[in-house]
Amino acid sequence: MAVLSLSRLGFVAPPYPRTSSGRLASSCRAIASGGGGPPRRITVAGDPPTVVSAPGRRIVAIGDVHGDLSQTRAALVLAGVLSAESDGHVWTGGRTVLVQVGDILDRGADEIAILSLLSSLNVQAKPQGGAVFQVNGNHETMNVEGDFRYVDPGGFDECMRFLEYLDECDGNWDDAFLNWVNVAERRKKEYRASPNNGDWRSWNFVKKQKGFAARSSLFKRGGPLACELARHPVVLKINDWIFCHGGLLPHHVEYGIGRMNREVSRWMKSSGENSNDETDIPFIATRGYDSVVWSRLYSQDSAERTRRALLLSSIVAEETLESVRAKGMVVGHTPQIHGVNCKCDGKVWCIDVGMSYGVLYSRPEK
Fold first, then answer.
1. Mean pLDDT along residues 141-165
2. Per the database record, which ranges form the Calcineurin-like phosphoesterase domain (predicted)?
């Protein structure tokens, strides 16, 4: 996870200094600049959003957060869009446009709280002329498929706690979901203090079954959290920048960005229980090494690739960006050991630095 500011005028990328502890210091900055006078309103095309016009806005991108609420907050505060108070979740970004490029789920214990936080910030940002957008990554699609291999035990616990809170809210989804981030920490402490909740030892089959059932009910196709994820695209264009989790490739553009977004959304919202429902998982967007959420063509460590492979990725990036009339792409998915950086002759920014405690536990960068 990292913070990257974008603008029409380009960017300045200094070296990647390390602190005395060996962790990466802030390493990537961009120059933000808008025209004179008040900016025009933000317009959104597509359902889920596919093309966004945000004239004169500062655009901030944040990479993979993987269930780490504390690090997510730190990155948002660093980006200037979240109040610094530990118990407050107030939008301070004004007209800023914030984009999170996927992998909110798995490896951490506060996934729903992060989803709740971003939704709450979006509600607060809109009246101020700002906005918050999310892009689905491979871990979002995996969970909707029922693939829970990378779920932290605390993630199962959070699902059980959230369902209890939803019941207390009389099933009012909007109230429970938007407010969850404000009660999640307190509920977690209460849950841990209860002697009846046990732990995740290998023989605690009852707790495991309850946790699995809770998560399945929330994330299964047509489930409430699957429907929340269905609101978000797998590829988003804001002004002249492309945002996606893995990487946009020429055959994705040929297939149709809006078409992919609609098909993934429809698949997530469709329960699959209706005998007339033949909605299959959109393979081109969510499966395989060259799908939108899984591709590492642009983000793989340069040291691990040949000069020919590096040249090929630059050519592919240029062809892709020209075809969608964009000047750059921002991706996550692959942790960048040396910090935020741009690849493919400056065309692709890679902003996943493994911030979550479940990955590399790196410090936020800007």
1. 97
2. 58-205
Nearest in space to 361 (alpha carbons), one of 21, 71, 33, 6: 71
- Quick one: tokens of 77? 């505060």
DSSP 15-38: ---B-TTSPBPP--EE-----SSS
Instruction: Note whether 247 and 297 are within 8 A (CB).
Output: yes
Query: From start to end of 198-292, where are the E strands?
Result: 235-238, 241-244
Are 246 and 291 in contact, with CB atoms under 8 Å apart?
Answer: yes
Q: Return the SS3 of 20.
A: coil
Each residue's pLDDT tens digit, 116-130: 999 999 999 999 999
Give the alpha-carbon dihedral of 293, 299, 301, 305, to 10 degrees: 90
CA quadruple 259, 264, 269, 271: dihedral, nearest 10: 120
Exposed e or buried b for every residue in 184-220, given b needs 16+ CB within 10 A? beebbeebeeeeeeeeeeeeeeebbebbeebbeebbb
The answer to whether 129 and 94 have CB atoms below 8 angstroms apart is yes
Residue 116 phi, psi (nearest 5): -65, -45
Q: Is 245 a catalytic residue?
A: no
Rounded to whole angstroms, the Cα distance separating 135 from 4 reads 15
Beta carbons of 66 and 106 less than 8 angstroms apart: yes
What pLDDT is stored for residue 202 in this prediction?
A: 64
CA dihedral 335, 338, 344, 345 (to 10 degrees): 160
User: Pick the catalytic residue: 139, 232, 245, 333?
Assistant: 139
* pLDDT for the residue numbered 26: 30
Tokens of 275: 């005998």
Query: Among all chains, which residue has been given the structure tokens 């799908």?
Result: 291
